[in-house]
Amino acid sequence: MAENYLRINHLGDSIQLSWQRGNSMPRLAPSVTFEHPFDSKVLADLRWYLEEYLRFPYGLEPENAKKVEQKLQAWGRQLFDLVFRTTEKAREFFQEATRAGLDKCEISIISDDPAVLNLPWELLFSPDYQFLAPLLAGMYRSLSNYAVRAELGTMSDEQLNILLVIARPYGERDINFQTIARPMLEALKPIQKQVNLTVLRPPSLKQFEAELNARKGFYHIVHFDGHGDFQADSKIVQTQYGKLGEGVLVFEDAGGNPEIVTAREIAQYLNDCRVPVFVLNACKSGQAGEEAFSSVAGQLVKLGAKGVVAMAYSVYATGAKHFMGRLYGELVRGEDIASAVAAGRKSMSMENQRPSPKGLLPLQDWLVPVLYQQESYTPFRPKVVTPSFADLMGEADNSSVIASALLVDLPDVSAYGFVGRDYDILCLERAFRQNNVVLLQGMGGVGKTELVGGFARWLADTQGRKGGVFFTSFEGGAGLSQVVNQIGRKLGGEKFSSLPPERQQALVRQYLQTNPCLLIWDNFEPVNGFPQGNQPLLPAAERDSLKQFLKQLRGGQSWVLITSRREENWLDCGYALRSLKGLVQPDAEELAARILQEAGVDRAKLPGEYLELLKLLGGHPLSLRVVLRHLKTQTPVQLIEALRRGLDTFKGAEEEGREKSLAVSLDYSFAKLSEKARQHLPFLGLFSERVDADWLHAFSANPDNEFGQAYRAAFGENLQKSDWMGLLNEATAAGILEHLGETIYKIHPALPWYLRQQLDKMGSQEVISNLEKKLLAFYTGLAHKYFGKLISNAEQATFVLRVEEPNLLQHLRLAEQQEEWAYAQAILTALGEVYKRLGRKPEFKSLRERALNQIGFHLAQAKAKGQDAFDFWMYLRGVDANEALQSANLETARAVYQEILDELTALNDSSVNNKIAVIYHQLGMVAQEQRRFDDAIAFYNKALKIYEDAGDFYSAASDYHQLGMVAQEQRRFDDAISYQNCP
């Protein structure tokens, strides 16, 4: 906080410096004539350097930038000489300020003249102390002869409350949606408990007024991120307001169109609703027009704001991050505005590296933030509380609960982080204003999953969906039961799992209708069959339940975001369609920078053709990932020529949902792999989502077993684990795979298609078909093995089965399609046990229903398909009945057991008598639980007769035991003893 003050007062055609030490009376230096020190070219060069240079730092531009950086000192020296070198008294005042310490001194510029206020005073440069602004306790602009307004009253001391208004009414032509918000949110993470950030949705004047009126005296700061205007010849302003140079801000109306609001109106709202501070990073918000105080910042101060922080020029996201993080961090600590702005400016000066196509380059943009205020003001004075250790533990627990509650099952951010997509996020926000179901359609590998993940985190960070965000991938055939179970278990815990399915669905539907949630249904295209002509992953009944669920959510509070490679017209729910293309050029450059950094390529040494290569790749994230790594050994021109040749000579068919350019990019990258990698990696086309080198080795290593022989027939040799690790790491380095840790690797959803194409080219259909069958048998064995270990080593078995879940589900479908019912039963049994342990019973039930649909709903249908199908049918229906019995749903259990009994007896086949006896026994158990003792005795006796007729006295013993238990409950103790003593 400042102790001393240098004030530069501008009056008419002169300026006068004053010096105040502590609380002493200000002392004045003689007035000196003021002449504008810079012409228009100086200001134009400064704007070019700050806003344009880093977009294309090639050719002569770096040299021109160096010249501007050298001129910054000269321009700052001109301002310094004008103020501090024109009179002896001014020199003396500056020397006193330096002796006392510039870090204890504030400099203010006081004027009514926009030309003076608009000068880059932050450039003040002393030969001895260099640029002054980063060294000062504060620097700000004030208006002349302006009476200080009364205090606004007591503000909240619990949190620093911020209302963020992001207005982008000009669509794709606008500045990026999260240019400020994204670095601002990142900067606030360390102090998120002390900050309450609310994003205004929609960013209209009507909503702005409603929010401020509803929470008068609540917000310490309104942060406007959008457009301002000060131009005296603005036609829109002249037409609507008839006054030249009126300072305005541009909000959005309900349709996303520009809504122009004068600074006078904004100031009135701020004053009426007791908001003391306004932060502006609107374009031109800190520059003044021809009329006095016509800049937005100046007018807001004139009309009552305690302080306005504005940006004199456009600011880069990394610069904004450093400034905003320090600004808000200081305000949370209880510092005054000027000190907080000074700290932010200092942070920008120290961290001056900014992104460019050539990598990080230094930029002197610390002069961009400016402050307007009339007096020192501290908006937030935090309550001082000393927490106990128990409080700290409670806070830690609570924060993790809140974080996990907001984002449920959202995939981790990719290795390169979430990049760009500002306009797409803006479009999604706008689409959801009009429709609560949105379909995001885009080609494979274009980044749909990454976008919805970024959108979800954006909403969570800005309180956009307070009811929670729930992510479900449909790639493996998820259905409505999984969606309902996921939400219900997160909100209701284990108790939810015990409810009947109808009750579960009703509860979740009611919650979604009344709470603002976001449901993300990712990779939705396989649900109804993809590509066209393929069998749907879900049966018709399951698909219909999804349709009905979407219709039931219409008009409620929740949103549903669906991603697919095509339109899903069959849903018939009136969704809004949003098409996704590649990254825009600046975002493609940012992603490319991260890829090249990991690959060890120095962007600074790449020629200008590098940008042409990025344009050729069309911003396609997966293409960027697999192609750009080759810049380590190839020039951009060589890559461009190779890709163009590939596009010209491409002979493959463009498949639904996949771009030709992606196939060409993958072809190029694949061709650059080692011969051994090209030979063996196509095997991964038979896997889904993940592969484990341990299982690849187990399948392919032994030339003496059926698996190794099938592998050798397809690929010519057997591989050991070390071979696989080398190949998988090579593929990871090429951007084809992503290493998840240990021996596990992630496969991009768009890659199995390509790798399967390569596999089909390698051998005869008979050899490949046999390979698939052996891999199915292998996964059946793996499922059986780890099902057995769920008792002896549950933690390890559960981990393995969960990691391999996508591959197990894929092979379960394959077993059903090939009518390998014993394989299907083994895989489903293992998955079902894991699902039960994890509380995912509805998903297990959905898989059983799908299998039953394949095998036949009646036992006679299954029996006609063979003994394995018969056994599988008995397993499926038996699990239904047992689940009902275990959950005390006795009437349902009785009905299912009776249905099984009817199906068995209808066969009129003595070979199934043992199974009939089992069902009689189970019906007896149900009747006993229902205290229908006579029925229970009858059922047990029927089972007993079958067992004794067959000489199966071991099985008969269980029925004698149950008859004894019934007699005991009926208090027929002699009979009970007699039954228990039966052989």
Protein model, in words:
- The chain is of the alpha/beta class and 983 residues long.
- It has five domains: 4-142, Nucleotidyltransferase, domain 5 (2-Layer Sandwich), CATH 3.30.420; 160-373, Rossmann fold (3-Layer(aba) Sandwich); 393-580, Rossmann fold (3-Layer(aba) Sandwich); 582-672; 856-980, Tetratricopeptide repeat domain (Serine Threonine Protein Phosphatase 5, Tetratricopeptide repeat, Alpha Horseshoe), CATH 1.25.40.
- Helices cover 51% and strands 13% of the residues.
- The chain has 39 helices and 28 strands.
- A hairpin with a 2-residue loop joins strand 27 and strand 28 (744-747).
- Helix 15 packs across helix 16 (501-514), helix 19 packs parallel to helix 21 (636-649) and helix 28 runs antiparallel to helix 29.
- It is elongated, with a radius of gyration of 36 Å.
